[in-house]
Amino acid sequence: PPERKRFYQNVSISQGEGGFEINLDHRKLKTPQAKLFTVPSEALAVAVATEWDSQKDTIKFYTMHLTTLCNTALDNPTQRNKTQLIRAAVKFLETDTVCYRVEEPAALAELQKNEWDPIVAWAEKRYNVAIGSSTSILGPNIPASTKETFVSHLASYNMWALQGIEYVITQLKSLILSMGLIDRHITVEKAVLLSRLEEEYQIQRWGSVEWAHDYDLCELRARTAAGTLFVHLCSESSTVKHKLLQD
């Protein structure tokens, strides 16, 4: 959406029957489909309210990733159920970034082996599955049992968290990196670096377009971090003190 002039002075949260609501002055925030913007945890409400309070003279919607994720969870514009969300996430295994390897140039092949093999090995041990990798354009042959294991694991998350998980997977083009990130095995910076390994290799060789590379990198980190935070805030029972935006 285009930027909009900031029309409110104060942001606060309040608890309603369905959860925690965001108030812009005396107006209750609504979703694009005009539903009451209500989130399941106070911590998530504080995070969203902080996004709105951080806007200056104009509202830059494209910087408000948590708000966007909440809108998606509330409006469910694609009308998918939990099973469909899980299947969509697991389908990324078939084209997972860290499973596709090159044979040439040798330096890049070695880099992929050194950087990606450890995260694949971690996932195989963590979930007791076989994943592997391949230099074929068809990718690795992921066993059906591996897919079902991830289906079962993702089923333990609620619908809100699943929206966030799929969002992170979409950013990184990798279920394996996303699970490592959400399980706190790797950091956001590491996950993003591993997802862009070939691009970073090419940049080291040929250089980058001035400012464009840094902008893309920061944007990807911001989206990935927001998605990961969203998953955690939707998965954990956490409370925060009522100090919203007072510091």
From TrEMBL:
<comment type="subunit">
    <text>Interacts with ATP5F1B; involved in the assembly of the F1 component of the mitochondrial ATP synthase (ATPase). Interacts with FMC1.</text>
</comment>
<dbReference type="Pfam" id="PF07542">
    <property type="entry name" value="ATP12"/>
</dbReference>
<dbReference type="GO" id="GO:0005743">
    <property type="term" value="C:mitochondrial inner membrane"/>
</dbReference>
<dbReference type="InterPro" id="IPR023335">
    <property type="entry name" value="ATP12_ortho_dom_sf"/>
</dbReference>
<protein>
    <recommendedName>
        <fullName>ATP synthase mitochondrial F1 complex assembly factor 2</fullName>
    </recommendedName>
</protein>
<keyword id="KW-0472">Membrane</keyword>
<keyword id="KW-0809">Transit peptide</keyword>
<comment type="function">
    <text>Plays a role in the assembly of the F1 component of the mitochondrial ATP synthase (ATPase).</text>
</comment>
<dbReference type="InterPro" id="IPR042272">
    <property type="entry name" value="ATP12_ATP_synth-F1-assembly_N"/>
</dbReference>
<keyword id="KW-0496">Mitochondrion</keyword>
<dbReference type="InterPro" id="IPR011419">
    <property type="entry name" value="ATP12_ATP_synth-F1-assembly"/>
</dbReference>
<keyword id="KW-0999">Mitochondrion inner membrane</keyword>
<keyword id="KW-0143">Chaperone</keyword>
<comment type="similarity">
    <text>Belongs to the ATP12 family.</text>
</comment>
<dbReference type="GO" id="GO:0033615">
    <property type="term" value="P:mitochondrial proton-transporting ATP synthase complex assembly"/>
</dbReference>
